[in-house]
Design a protein that fits this description.
Layout: H1 11-33, H2 36-52, H3 59-83, H4 115-121, H5 126-136, H6 142-149, H7 153-176, H8 183-197, H9 200-204, E1 207-216, E2 228-229, H10 231-245, E3 251-257, E4 260-267, E5 270-280, E6 283-290, H11 311-314
Parallel strand pairs: 1-6
Antiparallel strand pairs: 1-2, 3-4, 4-5, 5-6
Helix pairs in contact: 1-2, 1-3, 2-3, 3-6, 4-7, 5-7, 6-7
């Protein structure tokens, strides 16, 4: 019986193919959307379509295309929601094992899952973002990208080129400043120690001169409404919050988030917020703090919902 004539895969074979590809599909959807639940919804929708698909030559190619297109559509819808978002919007933190496993080093590079990298992707339009990710993070050939996006190879090359230009300088800093194994973790531990000691000078020593602090409360937790920049201002903000949080029993621990060491902050054993970092030349160049409880449900213990004072209160109207 010829390949065309024989029956398609059984339901069990389809399910097995899908589960084998699920990590890659989720990786694409999460990097596109920056939201775990949205990524899971996209992957589930792809599964439902896969269950009914017929005449598919390549399960991986078909599913990657479907997930990417679904993510593009969802990202376009999300643009309106994010424009109305209260304060700064940051991607949802994703808990990862420590150290982050790399079964497919090209597809699962920790630097391509980091909060800093996901923030860079926000500069790109949905199709640009898809083309850039498929090429840069997942190593797809331009022919595959063209098939996924239903564009010509020339158009896809141009999209990737434009995307590289838009994120080039910041991307180079992210890629070129990856510290040796263990150094980033020690840097985060020093940050936690400086908080515990309320050591503003020690905190200053950890930062680049132009460090920024970005907080995402989403209107559901007090947060600094604007980006704070400059080592002195950021150090004062970090230490000021720590002083205010003492009465609530705030504690910090180093945790692996988005493939890198970060800080998980707890109140009464519940997650209050996460703090992730961009590192440049062995010092912290950006601090990303996520306080919106809707984004903390999958990163540690259940969120603390009684709103202890957070960095919005410590900002002192700066």
């Amino acid at each position: 019986m010829s390949e065309i004539e024989r029956e398609g895969p059984t339901g069990e074979e389809r399910a097995a193919d899908f589960e084998r590809l699920r990590p890659r599909l989720f990786g694409i959807a999460y990097r596109m959307l920056g939201a775990v639940e949205d990524a899971e919804d996209v992957v589930q929708e792809a599964y439902l379509r896969w269950h009914d698909a017929r005449g598919v030559q390549s399960a991986e190619g078909w599913l990657v295309a479907v997930v990417t297109r679904l993510a593009i559509d969802r990202l376009r819808r999300a643009e309106t929601e994010r424009a109305a978002y209260v304060g700064s919007w940051l991607p949802e933190p994703l808990a990862t094992p420590a150290p982050f496993p790399l079964p497919d080093r090209r597809a699962e590079l920790a630097s391509d899952l980091s909060m800093a990298f996901l923030v860079l992707l926000e500069r790109l339009a949905p199709e640009e973002r898809a083309a850039f990710l498929l090429r840069e993070a997942f190593g797809a050939e331009y022919a595959e990208i063209a098939r996924v996006l239903e564009r010509s190879e020339a158009a896809c090359r141009q999209m990737v080129h434009r995307a590289r230009e838009r994120v080039r300088d910041a991307r180079r800093r992210v890629a070129d400043s990856v510290p040796p194994p263990g150094e980033r973790e020690r840097l985060v531990e020093r940050f936690v120690a400086a908080l515990a000691a309320e050591d503003e000078a020690g905190m200053l020593a950890l930062f680049t001169d132009d460090v920024i602090w970005v907080s995402d409360g989403g209107g559901k937790a007090p947060a600094v409404p604007r980006v704070v920049s400059g080592a002195d201002r950021v150090a004062k903000l970090a230490v000021g919050y720590e002083r205010m949080g003492r009465e609530y029993g705030v504690t910090h621990e180093v945790a692996w988030i988005n493939g890198e060491p970060a800080v998980l902050t707890l109140v009464a054993g519940r997650t209050a917020f996460t703090t992730s970092f961009a590192v440049d030349g062995g010092r912290i160049s950006a601090v990303y703090r996520v306080l919106n409880p809707d984004k903390l449900r999958r990163v540690g213990p259940p969120p603390y919902l009684e709103s202890p004072p957070v960095d919005g209160d410590a900002a002192g109207g700066r």
